[in-house]
Every structure is written in C-alpha cells, then in structure tokens.
Amino acid sequence: MEEKISCDGGHEFKLLLSCPSGLSPSQVSVVFDEAYDRIPHSDSSLEHSISEIWDARVQQSSSLYNGTKFRYGGYNFDVGNDPKQQPHVSLQLGLTDYRTFVGTNLSPIWERYLVPSEDDCIQCQHTSSPLGNGAVVETSDKKILVLQRSNKVGEFPGYFVFPGGHPEPQEVGIISHEGFQELNQCRTINNKVSQEMFDSIVREVVEEIGAPADSLSSPIFIGISRRVMNVRPTAFFFIKCNLQSDEIQQLYSSAQDGFESTQLYAVSMSDLENMASKMPGCHRGGFALYKLMVLRQVHREFVRARIRITRRLSGCSVLQHLEPSLLMFLSFLFILFHTSVL
Q: What angle do CA 153, 159, 163 make, to 5 degrees?
C-alpha cells in the first residue's frame, strides 16, 4: 500500500494510500476523534519552540491566521471478501491548527519531532500534519490543469502544483472536539466531515482556476501522498471538467484565489511528466497516484477489448477449431491493430 520515491530535497514523497480504481463519496468515510490529535512531545524545549516560531512568523507577516485544520491520523482500507463488494476507506482525522503546523512540520528542526518507526502514524505523532487536498483536473480536450505558485506564498513559491488547499473544520461547524461525544452526534459529524472531504476540493478548484462548480464532475478519491520533507500529507482527487482548456484560461483571469498563483497551464501527460520535477513532493505524489489510476483504466480497457474480440473470433466458423492459446494471441493482435489505427 505504501511506496517511497526518492529524489532531491522537497521533491521526495511517499504514497501512504493508493486507490487507482478511484473511490466515490459513498466509498470514503471519516472517523473524527481526539484520539487522532497530535501528541505533545516530551521535550519541553521543543514544545516551547512552537510558540516562538509562530510569534516570529506573525511579526514578519501580520496577515497570518491561526485557523483550525483536520489532522491526518491514518486510515483503514477494506477491500472486502466478496468480489462484487466495492472497496471502502475510512480516514482517521483529528484536529490541529495552523500555528502548530508552522511550529512543528515547518519548523527548521522538524525532524526532531519524528519518532523512529516504520509506522507512519507513530513516526508523525508529535507533528501537526494537517491533511491538505489536491485535484488532478482533466479538461474536455484531455489536458491537465497545473498552477504555478506565486512567489508570495509561504510554501514552495514558484513551484508547479495542482489546484488544492485544505478541507476546513469550520465548514462543518467544528472548532473543537467538545459536543460530539454522544453516539448519534459522532455519526452525524463523521458524515459531515466525510462530505467535506469532497466538497472542499471542489471549492478549491472553483476558487483557484475559476471554473464554475457545475462544470466539474463529482470528485473521485485516488489516494494520499506525503512530502518527506516536513512530513506533509495531502489527499488527492480526480475531477473531469466539461470545459475546454482555452475556456478555462479565460476564467482563470478572474479566479477568486488567483493571487495565490501566477499562471495556469493546461498540459498533456508528457508535459506533466516534465513539470513534475518542479513540484513539491506531495504534489509529485499526486501525479504518481494519477498515473496509477490511468494505468488501471488502460488495463481495464485492454481486458474488455480482449473479451469482446475473443468472443467475435470464437464465433467465426473458420477459427472455432483453433487452440484457445492461439485464439488469445490473435485477439491480442487485433487489439494492437485497433489501438494503432485509433
């Protein structure tokens, strides 16, 4: 389930969860509980440094706001025993805030907060680790949308990224864990947070690229990547847009959050491959998740085509007496021929 890809500095990433078949909202749930909150470090000097780093950042930029965020605390993945049963993932989320994120994950001494462990959740139990989100958006003319970050943003200025941000606790009325102890309340809030996972990525795409919400398909969840530097986790989704790339370019000029980026690119898969080397690790991981999804789709189409052509060939009186292995080989040749023609 996990995969680590090595490259330099902030480009390194780890795939925490890969769902190449893509999961719909009905296949993704959330358990929101204080059990998945950050555990304070036993070193009091490290804990004290969180306030020091935050205060210094606020002095540099008075516009910084300490908002609450959902903290990533792990997941459970259920593929089921019945082949007809759809896979399901349950995300485990706690609560954190931007101040603690700046003071732990983005701290110059962030590695001191890590616990030596192969278990990702144990390794990062002392970090804020807010769960970000990102979307691989495909236009109607089969281009992928990529933004170049402004030089004024806090993380990785000037880098290429997919549209994204964070699911927001405030959107579902969460400011703390208080008031959600009752079973019925827990179920209600878990359902609301689950929906926020999908609603938030649509909001981010609309605000950052300017495309209207009704031009976007329902997002499908394709996995979670984590930037190795600063152990920054991000959930990724795939979204189709029914507009062409030139139409979106026009809408981008008036995007609500256009100030966060300097340019919008609509690129092919090969161009995206080249741009990925200039992406932060978590977004390079998002591209890796997208490629796994595409490979799964190609495999499915190949299997379907093989079945269709095998049936056609087996119905031909001339070929009925051929060995099954030879029939399959002929099916393969037919698929290659049709692919090359198309």
A: 75
